[in-house]
Amino acid sequence: MLEKYKRIIGAVLLINILLVATHEGEFWPFSIYPMFSQAGKPWSRGVVEDVRDTTRSDLWETKPIEAIDNRILPLEEYGIHEIDFANYISKTRSWNAEKINGLRTTFQIDDYPGKMWMATRVVGSINEQDSVVIKAIPMFLFTPDSTYKNPNLFPNK
Amino acid sequence: MDRLLRNLFHFEAPQSIGTKIQLRAFEFFTVIYTLLYTWEWAFYVPRLSDVVLPLGVANYLNVEIFFSELATVNAIVITLSCLIPLLFKRLRWLYVPAFLLFHLQYVTRFSQGEIPHSANLVAFSLMGLALAAVFVRDIKKSLPFAFGFTIFFLGLGYTSAAISKLVATGITWPDGQHLWLWIGEKSIDILSKTGEFQLNWLQELALSSRFIATVILTFGLVAELLGFLVWWKHLRPYVTLALIGMHIGIDLTMNIFFKTFTIQLIIMGFPWNRYINNFSKRLRSLPLKAFGRYLLY
């Protein structure tokens, strides 16, 4: 019986190695478990700022996270998965109309009259003084009527 | 090699009440968590609109068709395929479609760029039950096989995680600065989720000293690296305790709690069968026979 078990374990192990080797380390549940393997690299996440005043001068400026952390939209209260949102806003390279509308659909802001939500990319890194620096980069402002793109990032569109 | 296999698959007193309780607890846990994940994902996927990052079989199949009530149909089939063999102890081959459809449900839900590993061990347990149903069949032998199979991939997984870190970053991986950066990253995830974030005592301690942060990461790396030692029965409880300690540390420093892994480590990492057998005289006075018919085998 042990001989049989050995063959089963060996076969599954071989399949495991072949699948993770040909699928960038992930073929669920087979995995090389690469989470947190690349230490010290700058990261990118996302938050949604609950905007109350669109006339303020720093609306579209990149700023320290402390400048907006008292008005962050709690995504769990709106049924939005924060990691999905973070991945969407940080991994999307080409912001075409379809991608922007996909983000807008996720928020379902049409159901919240009077609200203005800024989809914000957040980046973190270690600076030369060995301190962690976290910056918020405004990307898109959603209102029930319109979508506005950051003119500093999308100047000609 | 045979000694290692005996450590994985042989239980002392295999027909004892203690062994039956531990093995069936493993099977019940596997099914319950398979169904919890399956339904959680089924309720979420109708919100998705397009695939950002295809995983597993989604590399070959457009899973966008499951962004609908099809995910619920899938969940119903998985539920039946798990509950029938669990409760009636027959048609155990149904664990095979349950595992395959569970994979499909995962790659449908996690097509948005996130690659969580919280359900991996549950999936390996289900895979072990499926393989046992096909190749071992007799429940008295198939459950010890599935248990040992899961222990094997549990140990391999933790050690792989440590090796990945050493390969990707090198020996400097435990540098405390790296923990500072991750605490900052996870603080943003919590802020995004709840609208607020407060550092806890361990995070404040880690951020106050690069040395302390380095010690915390070093403990985690060593615990993971030694994960394969769970393959040996006499070391299993100690390695399990170290891994549970590591998960508590991850929760306190990075706000990521691997609840399912921790519960499964508790069920599988300690010789509960021996503890229960030691108390078997007291257990005999409990109405086990009535429940045993369904709960045990």
Automatic annotation (TrEMBL), chain A:
Superkingdom of origin organism: Bacteria
Record-given protein name: Uncharacterized protein
Automatic annotation (TrEMBL), chain B:
Keyword Protein transport: no
Presence of keyword Ribonucleoprotein: no
Keywords: Membrane, Transmembrane, Transmembrane helix
Organism of this sequence: Fodinibius roseus
Annotated transmembrane regions: 25-45, 65-86, 93-111, 117-136, 143-163, 211-231, 238-258
Domain of life assignment: Bacteria
Protein's recorded name: HTTM domain-containing protein
